[in-house]
């Protein structure tokens, strides 16, 4: 309830009854401004609650699968990771690589040398089987 629409609250605010000290209230604040501020505060509370729920879901949820990670990079759902969608993903994570670095990373993951990383190559890389002497 806004002080403007509730005379009791308006009186308490203007006399300092809520904070035990006098408050200076500009009674000429337009209702639209007061409602706008209330809407902003309400939305902030909603966003805070949404953030808390997301954090809880993340902590209580299961681990992501390699498919989840792959799809997170291949947002266009083209079935492979290339320099373009890898660059887009990394920039979204605030990681900026040069074109040469992106191409080197793709080459590191790409087992059949077609400049595309498919799910099986991505999984092999995450399992560590791209490293000599390690079992898949």
Topology:
Layout: H1 7-15, H2 31-60, H3 66-73, H4 83-92, H5 99-109, H6 119-127
Characterise this structure:
With 136 residues, the chain is mostly helical. The chain is 57% helix and 0% strand. The chain has six helices and no strands. The chain has helices spanning 7-15, 31-60, 66-73, 83-92, 99-109, 119-127. Mean pLDDT is 79; it is low at 131-136.
List the keywords.
mainly alpha, 136 residues
Task: Name the average pLDDT.
Answer: 79
Shape: elongated
Give the distance, in angstroms, between the N- and C-terminal Cα atoms. Answer: 62 Å
Number of strands: 0
Count of individual helical segments: 6
Q: Main beta sheet: strand number and arrangement?
A: none
* Fraction in helix: 55-70%
The structure class reads mainly alpha
> In what range is the share of β-strand residues?
under 5%
Order of helices and strands: HHHHHH
Unreliably modeled segments: 131-136
Radius of gyration: 27 Å
Briefly summarize what is shown.
It contains six helices and no strands. It has 136 residues and is mainly α.
């Amino acid at each position: 309830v806004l002080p403007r629409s509730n005379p009791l609250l308006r009186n308490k605010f203007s006399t300092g009854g809520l904070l035990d000290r006098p408050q200076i209230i500009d009674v000429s604040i337009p209702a639209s401004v007061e409602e706008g501020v209330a809407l902003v505060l309400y939305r902030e509370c909603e966003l805070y609650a949404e953030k808390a729920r997301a954090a809880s879901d993340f902590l209580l949820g299961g681990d992501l699968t390699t498919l989840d990670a792959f799809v997170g990079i291949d947002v266009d759902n083209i079935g492979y990771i290339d320099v373009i969608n890898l660059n887009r993903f990394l920039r979204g994570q605030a990681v900026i690589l040069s074109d040469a670095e992106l191409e080197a990373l793709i080459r590191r993951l790409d087992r059949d040398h077609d400049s595309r990383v498919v799910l099986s190559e991505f999984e092999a890389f995450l399992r560590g089987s791209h490293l000599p002497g390690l079992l898949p």
